[in-house]
Amino acid sequence: MAQIHFHISTTDRVLLDCGAADVRDLTEAREEAQLVVRALIAVPGPEDWRDFMLHVHDDLGEEMYALPFKTVLGRMH
Hints:
Blueprint: E1 2-9, E2 14-15, E3 21-23, H1 26-42, E4 53-58, E5 63-68, H2 69-73
Antiparallel strand pairs: 1-2, 1-3, 1-4, 4-5
């Protein structure tokens, strides 16, 4: 079991995750990352999520995985 953190960035800011999630492996970390992104974009609001990036870091601060929000959002209609 590993602890991971989900940090969010745009071109002009970074939001650090002070909590941690427990995952078994990189596959579960990727699944959790997609769930986090889906939860954030599901909240109604003025935010344009296309330029956001979710960074998954291990408990040592090393980036394990990065997920652009636009890959979860899909194409704009």
